[in-house]
Amino acid sequence: MPDNPKLPARAWLIVGLLWVGGCLNYLDRVIITTMRTSLQASIPMTEAQFGLLTTAFLLVYGGLSPFAGYLADRFSRSRVIITSLFVWSLITWLTAQAKTYEQMLVTRMLMGVSEACFIPAALALVADYHRGATRSLATGFVLGGVMIGSALGGLGGWIAERSHWSHAFSLFGLIGIVFACVLLVLLRDPPRENGDRATLAQAGSTVRLGEAIKSLFSSRNFILAFIYWGVLGIAAWMVIGWMPTYLQEHFHLPQGRAGLVATVYVNVASLIGLLVGGLWADRWSRTNPRACIYVTAIGLGIAVPAILLVCTTPLLPLAIVGLVLYGLTIAFASTEMMPILCLILDPRYIATGFGVLNLFACLVGGATTFAGGALRDAHIEVSRLFQAGAASMVVCAVMLLFIKPGVAGTSIPTGKLDC
To answer: What domains are there in the chain, each with its CATH number?
Structure first.
């Protein structure tokens, strides 16, 4: 990690704006998981069909993520972010108008298209502005918005229980449309003289999708990161997709309370974990370039017994302890993924690389979420999938230790490896 360069003037403003964007991004995608009972009462569907609503979103979202990352590498990151936010917010509002299962399924797929562009572009924009020992913390702050959005997703079940499921989609869709207008005024890419990406652009480097994919998969480090991030999706998406239902049935909670317990405790703890992990990695990186890798591995090692506690204890207070510990430590993986990519990838392909990782994670996560619904229809406990998620985290922690800093097969100087 090089000495801290002077940050561009808007560096922390950008983090604040993207914090709100990340909050809306995840709130709009997860509210549907907390209103299962109300939604099924209004639009008849099987458990597998309910699971398919999340799976369809993930398949489209993941499938388009590499292309979405390429757009952020090739064009203005800020414009990609603004367009993505406006379109997915409009689709969130349109979801409230759905009357049939088929219409609901279509809106979820369209949301996958529009939301795919946000996270790769947002995290790459943070990396553009924060090039020294503030990167992990800045990334953690932006992903903190994601955690808050996931936690607020529990409001979907609460609103649906007290009025109608469509009201939540109408409200949050309109909020997102208004905020997109705010970003149009305030969000900007960094000045061209700041950041290695601008330097590479001035040197005439051209980002092409085919060349980017070839460069990524010629790297042993990236292949390891690709497999690691995908396998980690088993645990992450199982908790997001089925924890509210598991708590509702296992502990006999009403829908609204189950949704809040499943989202608030995990995501508030994750918010703290993002900051703790970011600060820890930033400080450690001053003496060890693999700090972001080690911090992530340690976090996964703690998250495994935490999720096992949730799915085995008969006591709700102990389950909440497990959810808090899981949320706190699994967050290390999220806040350090972009810094890890900055250690191992050609700087021109950072957003594309993150998009490719999202593809595999969403394919795995979507299959796992759908499997949860299919297993419920077959009267098999969802807790079995939580156990499989814990096993996947053990594998991920081991794989991380084989990733080493350095960009293979590129002529970019060593000083440019920090994006």
So the answer is: 12-406 (1.20.1250.20)
Rounded to whole angstroms, the maximal C-alpha distance in the chain is 62
First to last CA, the chain: 11
Per-residue pLDDT at 2: 45
Global pTM value: 0.73
Q: How far is 233 from 364, CA to CA, in rounded Å?
A: 6
Q: How far is CA 242 from CA 153, 163, 202, 360, in A?
A: 13, 23, 48, 20
Residue 29: the pLDDT is: 84
pLDDT tens profile 59-94: 788 788 888 888 888 888 899 999 999 999 999 999
Place of tokens 């006999």: 252
Residues 309, 324: Cα–Cα separation, whole Å:
11
Angle at 320 between CA 361 and CA 171, to 5 degrees: 65
Alpha-carbon span 154 to 149, nearest angstrom: 9
CA 267 to CA 221: how far, in whole Å? 30
Tokens in use for 2?
């090089």
Task: Determine contact, residues 183/21, Cβ cutoff 8 Å.
Answer: yes
Name every residue whose Cβ is closer than 8 Å to that of residue 205 and which is 6 or more positions away in sequence.
Answer: 348
Q: How far apart are the C-alpha atoms of 172 and 3, rounded to whole Å?
A: 42
CB contact set of 166 (below 8 Å; sequence gap of 6+): 95, 96, 97, 98
Q: What is the DSSP string of 72-115?
A: HHHS-HHHHHHHHHHHHHHHHHHHTT--SHHHHHHHHHHHHHHH
What averages of pLDDT result for each successive group of 10 residues across the chain (419 residues)?
Answer: 62 92 88 82 82 81 85 88 93 89 89 87 88 82 83 81 85 93 91 52 59 88 90 78 81 82 82 90 86 93 92 90 93 89 86 86 72 72 78 90 71 42
The tokens for 415 are 């000083």
Contacts of 388 (CB under 8 A, 6+ apart): 234, 238
Looking at residue 32, what DSSP letter applies?
G
254 sits in which H/E element? none
